[in-house]
Amino acid sequence: MRDLSGQPLARDAMAYVLAGGRGSRLVELTDNRAKPAVYFGGVSRIIDFALSNAINSGIRRIGVATQYKAHSLIRHMQRAWNFMRPERNESFDILPASQRVSESQWYEGTADAVFQNIDIIAAHAPKYMVILAGDHVYKMDYEMMLRQHVESGANVTVGCLVVPRMEATGFGVMHVDKQDNITAFVEKPADPPGIPGEPDMALASMGIYVFDTEFLFDELRRDAADPGSGRDFGGDIIPHIVKHGKAVAHRFTTSCIRAADEIEEYWRDVGTLDAYFEANLDLTDVVPKLNLYDREWPIWTDQIVAAPAKFVHDEEGRRGMAISSLISQDCIVSGALARQSLLYTGVKMGSFSSVERAVILPYCNIGRNAQLKNVVLDSGVRIPEGLVVGEDPVLDAKRFRRSDKGVCLITKDMIARLG
Q1: In what residue span(s) does the Nucleotidyl transferase domain sit (predicted)?
Q2: Three-class SS of 213-277
Q3: pLDDT at residue 85 in the model
Q4: Within a domain: residue 230?
Q5: DSSP states of 64-122 as a string?
Q6: Does residue 321 sit in the same domain as residue 276?
Q7: Do 278 and 201 belong to one domain?
Q8: Cβ partners under 8 Å of residue 119, min gap 6
Q9: Which DSSP category does 181 fall into?
Q10: What is the pLDDT at residue 2?
Q11: 242 neighbors 182 (Cβ within 8 angstroms)
């Protein structure tokens, strides 16, 4: 048992966010941006959730590893997360893959993205490392996970979701004993192991890990010297520790942050178009599953200087209205209707147009008389006057990216091809 007296453990921790993934399942939404930089919730980016959780948990040293199509992600972090101050023992390091170890070597995996920056991490001298995925939507107090890690004497603590067993086939899954010690770690098993006492449920990895820093460094160096390793936490580092050390599962229910009216422990991997669409629309419910209005656990992001949203015209058939919708700054709804939709910054809607179940990214312009339903509009799209989407599935699939559940993604290139 290690000493838990004194200050919060988060003050001795560094959060390291892995934000370099391709995000290819979001198709054209990640053509020009990394998945963590994709917009979410009307004002935020996906990465803001992991970073906000770290700040709200009391962690003041943060590193973010970037790689693929990182420009918009880096620009966002420079604008939104530039309030950290070295004189307060705070730091915020953006760590692009820069061939620091070898002239030909980018980040070869999640573990390698930490290994290549050991010297930078060591300069901050954190006692604990909290390794985070930068592409999930949730609210969590990492201090609770740090405390379990120290109390248990674990070599690694793995954040886990309790999910129906056969829904865990796409995750790394823990086999645990009755004390939640991990006895096996299996990547994407066809037949996931159940939880003791709950055979129909499984423990799925959230991609969140807590280590003592020196132990992590030793493991990364060992892994880097192994020519057969895939340089991955889930595929290599964690299974090795499970076999040769002590790995413990931390259940999300223990540290999930819920406002008084939130009815579930909300965690979403918004890695597909349908999942992204549905998670955004979750926010339009009267009592949303994820409360972005919780001032005790704010989601920090870039504060854009812009005019308030505006609704104009008040005559029959031409009334600016929004129902069950989130409308951001600098939007103008001019004689138009938004229903169960999210309008991000700077969206303009022309008279007699309507959107329903729509996620409209920044600075889109919707022409007069356009009727859009079940759509995601990429940023900067200009919808022609009179365009109808969501009524004819066959026609929609010919013109746009249509998902299995009937969601149409519309980009500037797709509109340009309409002629």
Answers
A1: 16-284
A2: HHHHHHHHHHHHCCCCCCCCHHHHHHHHHHHHCCEEEEEHHHHECCCCCCCCCCEEECCCHHHHH
A3: 87
A4: yes
A5: EEE-TT-HHHHHHHHHHSTT--GGGT-EEEEEE---SS-TT----SHHHHHHTTHHHHH
A6: no
A7: yes
A8: none
A9: B
A10: 46
A11: yes
Asked if 175 contacts 243 with a C-beta cutoff of 8 angstroms, the reply is no
Q: Who's near 103: CB < 8 A, 6+ residues apart?
A: none
Instruction: Check whether residue 334 and residue 218 sit in a common domain.
Output: no
Question: Domain limits at 409?
Answer: 310-416
Q: Taking all residues of the chain, what is their mean pLDDT, rounded to a whole number?
A: 94
Separation CA 199–CA 378 (nearest Å): 42
Query: Alpha-carbon dihedral of residues 217, 222, 226, 230, nearest 10 degrees?
Result: -40
> Nearest 5°: CA angle at 126, between 124 and 131?
105
* Inter-residue contact 174 to 203 (CB < 8 Å): yes
Question: What sign for the dihedral angle of Cα 77, 81, 87, 90?
Answer: negative
The alpha carbon of 89 is separated from its chain's Cα centroid by a whole number of angstroms, namely: 26
Percentage of residues in the chain having pLDDT higher than 90: 87
H/E element holding 412? helix 412-417
pLDDT of residue 1: 36
Q: Is 107 annotated as a binding residue?
A: yes
Model's pTM, two decimal places?
0.94
Helix (H, G, I), strand (E, B) or coil at 149: helix
Question: Taking the CA of residue 338 as centre, how many other CA atoms within 13 Å lie in the half-sphere pointing to its CB?
Answer: 30
Instruction: For residue 172, say whether it is annotated as part of any ligand binding site.
Output: yes
3-state helix, strand, coil in the chain (%, to 5): 30, 30, 45
Length of the chain in terms of residues written = 419
Q: Give the 3-state secondary structure of residue 408.
A: strand
Q: Are 251 and 352 members of one domain?
A: no
Task: Note whether 398 and 274 are same-domain residues.
Answer: no
The structure tokens listed for 96 are 């692009």
Model confidence at 215: pLDDT above 60: yes
Number of compact structural domains in the chain = 2
